[in-house]
Predict the 3D structure of the following.
Amino acid sequence: MTSTANPPQLIDRFGRIVNYLRISITDRCDFRCLYCMAEDMVFLPRAQILSLEEIYALAQAFVELGVSKIRITGGEPLVRKGALELMAQLGQLPGLRELVMTTNGSQLVSMAASLKAAGVKRLNISLDTLNADNFKAITRTGDLSQVLQGIQAAKAAGFERIKLNAVVLKNRNHEEVGDLVQYAVDNQIDISFIEEMPLGVVSQHNRGEAFYPSHQIKADLAARFTLIASTESTGGPSNYFQVAGSNSRVGFISPHSNNFCSSCNRVRLTVEGRLLLCLGNEHSVDLKAIVRAHPNDQTALKQAIIDAMLIKPEKHEFNIHEQPVILRHMNMTGG
Ligand code: SAM
Ligand code: SF4
């Protein structure tokens, strides 16, 4: 990784520069979080997904076009065989400033140190509750102690920053937001609270009824913590606050109550090779077809990526109270 990014070539119709790519390297996962997946998910057959070599070729094209930050996600990225080798390769891409990952933490006990050595700078780790039974209920298959040990392994590995991600659902975990912040403070890490997004049909809860807005979380936290508005901007959708007297920040990702589209700098690549121009719209381009048609030539691929910017929508159109218009689940999307 070098500190100098390549000149930006990805600019959309609204003048937004795209310099951040999120890549989902698998749709599979060892958990079945109830806001993310249906219980009986059918996963993609191998022929339909990008090979690790194809993912690398795509990442390289994006970086040469000015992308300076890549987040690897999934599904659960660390359940894909060869994930560590891919990370090590991506970590060497000239012009890539930041290689980061979002994980559910289940594999970190054995993999955290190797991820750090591969060049991963920061980790986002999902944690919605500190109650083992509730953790099992939300993830359907997960084991809280394994994830908590994974968080400690990540701390020991020395990442620049670790951030927890918690999706907050009313009457599931909304009463735990204070305990989660205290856990973050005790461990000197950050935490973001995420409003649930209506991606794919889920069976176990009504998303409208489970909606718990960020401003309500903020009000709940005010009883226990002093949150100081941070001037620091990550260029992303999170609004950050410093927890007074600590090293931790609390972020709020509020697609419903705070539309962040005007500063959007990102696109997503699904494991099927679809370039998604917006999380909340179906506008996409099939890059897998182009990589497979031109395996040793980046020219056509780069042109397709540049052209794709012209169909990036201005904003998402989420409505939590209606049946989802977006039928792909988050594991397909690369959240
Ligand atoms: N498996 C990894 C994990 O859980 O961190 C990475 C992929 S997961 C899809 C990425 C993030 O998306 C997680 O923090 C998860 O909580 C969040 N997520 C999943 N479904 C969501 C939804 N419907 N609305 C909002 N966030 C969601
Ligand atoms: Fe798996 Fe992450 Fe989705 Fe949970 S949120 S089911 S851990 S991909």
